[in-house]
């Protein structure tokens, strides 16, 4: 099914807005963690509290949809790895220079391409190269 030109442009606008929003959120997320650390709460505890609150709100809002969901080991592993990644990000911006950490974070697509070539032997497609 082909999208009409207006729908396609709307989808592109939503995608661009989403990218800018995500970049803004990740670019500013470090500040509240620094404030909490200055108030005496460790970065690991602040991260755990943040994700616990998000989990409880998500469960409360999405419980009817989650009733039939059957979790898998792969899903659980992905959640643990993603949580570890986010914890690493928070600790890096708390204990490192924010600009260096954010530069490495925003260059993660480049690191992904390089590591996927070295570790998995994957080749970069023309589309993937354009994205990077």
- Strand percentage lies at under 5%
Radius of gyration: 19 Å
Structural class: mainly alpha
Order of helices and strands: HHHHHHH
How many β-strand runs? Answer: 0
Largest sheet: none
**Poorly predicted segments:** none
Specify the overall morphology: globular
Task: Provide an overview of this structure.
It is a single chain. With 132 residues, the protein is mainly α. Helix content is 82%, strand content 0%. It has seven helices and no strands. The chain has helices at 5-28, 30-38, 43-66, 73-95, 98-106, 108-120, 126-131. It is globular, with a radius of gyration of 19 Å.
Structure summary:
With 132 residues, the chain is mostly helical. The protein has seven helices and no strands. Helix 4 (73-95) runs antiparallel to helix 5 (98-106).
């Amino acid at each position: 099914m082909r999208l009409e030109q207006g729908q396609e442009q709307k989808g592109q606008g939503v995608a661009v807005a989403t990218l800018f929003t995500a970049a803004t959120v990740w670019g500013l997320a470090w500040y509240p963690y620094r404030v909490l650390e200055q108030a005496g709460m460790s970065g690991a505890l602040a991260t755990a509290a943040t994700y616990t609150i998000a989990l409880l709100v998500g469960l409360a809002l999405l419980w009817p949809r989650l009733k039939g969901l059957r979790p898998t080991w792969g899903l659980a592993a992905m959640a643990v790895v993603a949580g570890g990644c986010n914890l690493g990000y928070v600790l890096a911006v708390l204990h490192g220079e924010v600009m260096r950490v954010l530069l490495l974070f925003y260059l993660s697509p480049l690191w992904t391409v390089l590591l996927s070539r070295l570790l998995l032997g994957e080749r970069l497609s023309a589309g993937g190269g354009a994205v990077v």
